[in-house]
Amino acid sequence: MTQLQTVENLVGRGNTEGADLFRAWFTELEQTAATGGHAAYVFVMGSMAEILRTFEIPMVFPEINSLQTAIRRVAHQFLNEAEDYGYSPDICGYVKADVALQLRQGDHPMGKVPRPTVAVLTNACNTYVKWAEIWERMYQIPCFVLDVPGTRDIRSQSHPGDPSFENDRLYVEAQIKELINLCEQLTGRKFDIDRLREVLGHANRMNKAWQRVIDLNRTQPSVFNALTDGTIYLGVSNSFRGSSEGSRYFERLQEEMEYKSSQRIGTLTNEQYRLVFVGVPCYPIFRRFNEFFTEWNGTFVNSTYLWFASGGANRAFEYDLTRPLASLSEGTLLSVRDAMDSMFHQDRAVLEIAETFNIDGVVFHPIKSCRTVSTGLADGRRALMSARDIPSLFIESDMMDRRVVSEAQLKNRIDAFFEGLASRRLQQSAKS
Questions:
Q1: What are all long-range contacts of 8-14, with beta carbons under 8 Å and residues at least 24 apart?
Q2: Would you call 365 helix, strand, or coil by DSSP?
Q3: 150: pLDDT confidence band, cut at 50, 70 and 90?
Q4: What tens digit of pLDDT does each residue of 333-356 get?
Q5: Cβ proximity of 41 and 97 under 8 Å
Q6: Which residues pair with 274 in a beta bridge?
Q7: For residues 19-50, b (16+ Cβ closer than 10 Å) or e, as one string?
Q8: Nearest-CA neighbor of 104 among 112, 93, 116, 92?
């Protein structure tokens, strides 16, 4: 195979195959809606996909459904409908878009979304519980809340081997067994421990390849854009977690990124500025928002979004298949807790990224719809500035509501940021 053939076959394959898998996932949901089969509504932080896939229960991710309405530029219609129904303009845009989706009997731009027969959620986001209560009222379904203990010590997390960690792990394992009992009651199927081992094996392969893909973005030029490409990868990571399709996708994605890294093929032809994104993307103008940065030859090499929106899967925890339930509880505790920490203490995540990704600047993006992610970002920025001499930009918009997104203001702020980066680089060159 010639190098040209290799480029044609490999470069861009991850995005194409990711889009294909995403369409296949929605096709499965449409089939479930048509047959009236079981469907679990879950969230990206602590989806418990491993248990649900063991019982072959299709998963619906309302967060993903909602952001897709924004990417397809119809979110405002959903938001207006939910607000007309009585929901406040101030609450989470994801929630309001989902409420409108339910009022529309599951009619979504990408296909029909089935009604839930169960909701499975964690305490990772303070909106999750109230959101699930909406479905509980609408459909009279059971809502299973997995209470995952968070980090208690401001200095560090507890780890396997610590007595406190083992106590927390046992607490999580007992709850997982309760979820298994609930799934048995819903489906009429007995829990299959060997099937769980198979699912965990697929998750191991995915996690390992996912972490390697992230690590490969340390190379210069970077091999993928954490904001745009990363959102595709997150969609597959969540929707196909624990499946053979998901693990194969990430192994093929790793193959693509290994090749791009070895051949120095960057996501930009002339990468000048390596950035970190903090917060949730601006989906109403998703493409244009990214262009504000790429027009200056800036690209996002990592983001806190890749951490918390993957439920901590970016840490590549490996399940022990000889003790599947105990290991699942351990992995759930570590991953969900890490997701919470990277969301609530994003400055610490940025400092960790800065150590190895050779970044030029940090973009903080608080949004109107999500106070969980946005609260404290200004303080986090100050903490970052006091710890490291890293230029930063603070811009505000929203992940769903285009009514509060000003393209002109965003562009002005971003242009000024890059002008400052360019001036800083000239000054550093003059000193050397």
A1: 10/255, 10/256, 10/259, 10/260, 11/256, 11/259, 11/260, 11/265, 13/252, 13/253, 13/256, 14/224, 14/229, 14/232, 14/233, 14/249, 14/252, 14/253, 14/256, 14/257
A2: strand
A3: confident
A4: 999 998 888 788 888 889 999 989
A5: no
A6: 299
A7: eebbeebbebbbebbeeeebbbbbbbbbbbbb
A8: 112
